[in-house]
Amino acid sequence: MKPAPFDYVRADALGEALEALHEAGDEARVISGGQSLVPMLNMRLARPSVLVDITRVSELKRIEQRKGQVFVGAAVRQVELERWAPLAGLLPMIAAMMPWVGHAQTRSRGTVCGSLAHADPSAELPLALLALGGEMHLRNRRKKRVLPASAFFMGMMATAVEPGEMIEAVAFPTHPMGTGTAFREIARRHGDFAIVACAAIARPDGTNRLAVGGVADTPQAIDLPDPSDAGFEDALNEFAWSLGARDDLHASARYRRDLVRSLGRQTVKEAIACRS
Amino acid sequence: MPKLSREGRYAIGFRLNGQEVTAHAPGRMLLTDLLRHVLGETGTHVGCEHGVCGACTVQVDGEPVRACLMLAAQAEGADIRTVEGLEPAAGELSPLQAAFREHFALQCGFCTAGILMSLDALLARIPDASEDAIREHLSGHLCRCTGYAPIVKAALAAQAQLKEEEAANA
Ligand SMILES: Cc1cc2nc3c(=O)[nH]c(=O)nc-3n(C[C@@H](O)[C@H](O)[C@H](O)COP(=O)(O)OP(=O)(O)OC[C@H]3O[C@@H](n4cnc5c(N)ncnc54)[C@H](O)[C@@H]3O)c2cc1C
Ligand code: FES
Ligand code: FES
């Protein structure tokens, strides 16, 4: 269980990383925290011929609050966001999620953007991107583009990132007064991948949005009325069926649908209750 | 911008348990193998080699980190502590190590080095971590012998001892 040989490039500046990615094209992979990539290298599920290490690029190490958004650069480790003091006030949903993203021993190196790039269907941060309506900031050596979750996630562990391109940052919108958010997850143990994870937003106008991870190939979301509304249960049930749950080692499809309904309802109610 | 080609071996400089070291490794070598095979520091164990078991956990700049998920080349310039660095003086156990012995928190010992490094980091950062926080921290480790209860006990005992020492020194 050792990685196949590769060339390793440690970029000191963003321009260097982009140049190295451009040169190597689809032979290259970015390595950030390595918490998903190195297991794949060790098991030889991935055999890139060039690794571009971006973790020392200082431009990518920033967490910034601008124009109603929080920008998290590609070299920001999960533990840094978890301990960022304004997090609970600005992005309470993400603050609630962070302890569920792997273990303290993986958050110490894993990056926020790396988790989004990896696009595991059960991962928490991709769910946050969809639920909050965040944006991925991508760039190659010539141009930049900004994609919402719906255009970024292409399938299980597949994203819109092209050869020669990388994620520069993710932007999560902070919400106006009167918005409530909540997050709940069922996993075998804290730190294991979610069987079902739910994230909800209750908007000031009384409408709600529920996003679910761990069931379909990518996180999925639905707009829902108030739980007291007659249409709520039917809409939630239809949503649960639409996700195409499958049986696997961890849970049956039926259990997953049950969880989408029960945990989904609880999460929406909790978001409504914390609407300030 | 350093570039390590796949054929070469490269010098990697870092601090290991308080001493500056330089070791030579190919770009694809894992930190676990650098520590064990190149430097002969075999206290850090290797279980699963894909991040799940925690046996290889070391401290990198004070944080607990899986050494099997870090490339040796990524250690350049880092401050790394392994289980060999826990003893305050040769032949003397740290309060956490002593508590592990006293409370039977190890049997075969395969998981122990990693768990010690994780708990040491936690207690250094959060001296009054709750029992829940300790248990949550341990969720990043697998132990197939003890059933974890003695490990939690040892961690709490070490925490009490460390606080006492802190108060005595204050
Ligand atoms: C034991 C264990 C348990 C875990 N549990 C969970 C869990 O419960 N929830 C969860 O969400 N995650 C979990 N993870 C995975 C999480 O720890 C990873 O950190 C995360 O998925 C990847 O982030 P990274 O920075 O380590 O990325 P890397 O491993 O470095 O990279 C992952 C992938 O993304 C690409 N990539 C990385 N950065 C960029 C970029 N800037 N631009 C373009 N591509 C990029 C890489 O090329 C690679 O394909 C777990 C991991 C382990 C080992
Ligand atoms: S050997 Fe590193 S986590 Fe198992
Ligand atoms: S003591 Fe044997 S695995 Fe923990």
Which labels suit this protein?
heterodimer, A: 276 residues, alpha+beta, Uridine Diphospho-n-acetylenolpyruvylglucosamine Reductase, domain 2, 5-stranded antiparallel beta sheet, 11 helices, B: 170 residues, DNA polymerase, domain 1, 2 domains, 5-stranded mixed beta sheet, 5 helices, 6 strands, globular, binds flavin-adenine dinucleotide
Description:
The complex is a heterodimer of chains A (276) and B (170). With 276 residues, chain A is an alpha+beta fold. Chain A folds into three domains: 7-53, 2-Layer Sandwich (Uridine Diphospho-n-acetylenolpyruvylglucosamine Reductase, domain 2), CATH 3.30.43; 58-173, Uridine Diphospho-n-acetylenolpyruvylglucosamine Reductase, domain 3, CATH 3.30.465.10; 180-273, Enolase-like, domain 1 (2-Layer Sandwich), CATH 3.30.390. Helices cover 32% and strands 25% of the residues of chain A. Chain A has eleven helices and 14 strands. Chain A has a five-stranded antiparallel beta sheet. Chain A starts with 6 loop residues before the first strand and ends with a helix. Chain B has a five-stranded mixed beta sheet, with helices on one face. Chain B folds into two domains: 3-85, Roll (Ubiquitin-like (UB roll)); 95-169, [2Fe-2S]-binding domain (DNA polymerase, domain 1, Orthogonal Bundle). Chain B is of the alpha+beta class. Chain B contains five helices and six strands. Chain B is globular, with a radius of gyration of 17 Å. Strand 1 of chain A pairs antiparallel with strand 1 (3-4) of chain B, so a sheet runs across the interface. One FE2/S2 (inorganic) cluster binds next to loops of chain B.
Subunit organisation of the chains? heterodimer
Please give the CATH architecture of the largest domain in chain B: Roll
Largest pleated sheet of chain A: 5 strands, antiparallel
N-to-C span of chain B: 46 Å
C-alpha-based Rg of chain A, rounded: 19 Å
Of all chain pairs, the largest interface belongs to: A-B, 39 and 37 residues
Kindly state the percentage of residues in helix of chain A.
Answer: 25-40%
Domain tally of chain B:
2
Indicate the mean pLDDT of chain A.
96
Strand order of the largest sheet of chain B: 3-2-6-4-5
